[in-house]
Amino acid sequence: MESTKTAASLNAQALDYQRKMSNPFIFWFAMLIKLPSAIFWRFRIKKLDANECIVTIPYFWRSQNPFRSIYFAALAGAAELSTGALCQLALAGKGKFSMLVVDFRAEYHKKANQKITFKCEQGNEVFDLIDSLAIEETAQLTMISTGTKSSGEVVARFYITWSFKRKA
Q1: Which of 43, 24, 122, 130 is CA-nearest to residue 81?
Q2: For residues 53, 138, 100 and 13, what is the CA-based torsion angle, rounded to 10 degrees?
Q3: Chain mean position to CA 104
């Protein structure tokens, strides 16, 4: 049986991270310091909990390419944020870790010519992985973020492999 984490199972630091990333002003300020392209492309975290993260990217002049669709790098950034925010939530309050993208693969299916919503639903997997790591142990997890149009039509799917190492 697959475990399902709830807000009640999040520690205080994870709840604080969740609250900050869900607040548009705090998110904007954090991205200004850590990831300015997220502001430029107007990423929004619509939902972040222990199970999933949902990130949107609008279709507008700053995110589009010359072919009247969203630039592939902007799509990749939104997808990475949907997986990375889940990883950060899982790491919050659990000690020192290093975290790094070690592999990346993308599939593009349709033209991204409207607001795209990226969803990663692997919160339980990343929480279980982080909780299982011993000091100085390393593990990897490939997380999938699927980008869809408002109609539900899949535009792109990104496979982002994160490497984690628990530090002493």
Answers
A1: 43
A2: 50
A3: 13
Provide the pLDDT for residue 7.
52
Alpha carbons 74 and 78: distance in angstroms, whole number: 6
At 1 the pLDDT is: 41
Query: How many CB atoms neighbour CB 14 within 10 A?
Result: 22
Q: How does DSSP classify residue 64?
A: B
DSSP 47: E
Continuous segment of H or E residues that includes residue 132: helix 123-132
Give 51's contacts (C-beta < 8 A, 6+ positions apart). 4, 5, 121, 123, 124
Mean pLDDT of each 10-residue bin along the chain, 168 residues long: 59 96 93 93 96 97 93 96 97 96 98 97 96 96 98 98 96
DSSP 100: E
- Please, what is the end-to-end C-alpha distance for the chain in angstroms? 32
Backbone angles phi, psi at 67, to 5 degrees: -100, 15
Decide if 95 contacts 111 (C-beta within 8 A): no
Residue in the structure block whose two tokens are 């919503």: 117
* Domains of the chain, earliest start first: 7-166 (3.10.129.10)
pTM of the shown model? 0.92
Amino acid sitting at position 133: L
